[in-house]
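Example (one chain per record):
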Amino acid sequence: MDRATQPKSPYLSENKSVHRLMVDLMAQAGIEIGGEQPWDMQLNAEGVPERVFARGSLGLGESYMDGEWDVEQLDEFFHRVVRAHLEEKVRPSTAIWQALKSRLVNRQTRRRARQVGEQHYDLGNDFYEAMLDRRMTYTCGYWKDATTLDDAQEAKLDLICRKLQLEPGMRVLDIGCGWGSFMAYAAEHYGVECVGLTISEEQVHWARQHYPDLPLEFRLQDYREVDETFDRVVSVGMFEHVGDKNYRTFMEVAHRCLKEGGLFLLHTIGKNERKPYSDPWIDRYIFPNGELPSVGQIGDAADNLFVVEDLHNFGPDYDRTLMAWYANFEAAWPRFADKLGERFYRMWRYYLMSCAGIFRARDIQLWQWVLSKGGTADVFPRYS
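Predicted structure:
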């Protein structure tokens, strides 16, 4: 049995009608409360149905963090919940407020952009070293011919380099460079120079220490502040933090910094439809102020700036990537348990496995867009 799964216990509640609503709702996804399947929900305390119906995803996630319910295979639980569209049947006031804020307020201003760096990416480099691959690549791997996380991440980095058609001596801008995995790989294998932008002090510190001999420059800088010209521009896993009120600005910056005829690769998670808000639990505990774009929103932002040369979706690979991260996290957890505590453990487990289940349900995607400034002379080749 998974260490996070408690022994099955009878449901405790004073409100039997709300309990029945919860039972009926979960049954629509093939989930039984108190059942024997590994995706079945085990209630450990009173009030879980009330929290879920009152606060939606926020109530579901917070009650899990508080140890009030468990599921042995949390990834499969979420796969089933999302495939059954249960979130559409629970509309709490928190979701309405989240949507209203997203419509009225720019939640990704320059000042607010640092919040996700401080809360999420600055958790500690030792923590991410334990969870990620050897290059510290915190984005979806490419598993087409890979069997290990290291192989999948190097395959993804090489795929990006080939799509950008890198040549020795080129100067590349990496918007949202993380710990520098793409920059280092591109410099080592394709002979380019790179400038990387991040809003995480921990990432800059780690990257500068690890790559002192490569032609790489790491900056603690907002993307909106850059005004230089590069042969290529790349952004891998950062656009999710931009927000719809800034999509056009982001594209204008990439256009401004890219030389005529150059290529820009955008690697981002995306959603199937335009929604004016992010998941309330993810927003509060994992990625504050984040927002997933739709295909249409990216297209609108690129209008009259770029030619779309290629669009590649390998969203199912994120399921496998997240499960590999989760396996590493579980194996390393004893090293961090005293420092981070049980509630963090449950929060992080919920984050990784819920996202894996959502990708498995194909509710969100992973796209690589190749955009050119002015168009390419020939049909853009299909890389795989």
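Caption: The first strand starts at residue 42 and ends at 43.
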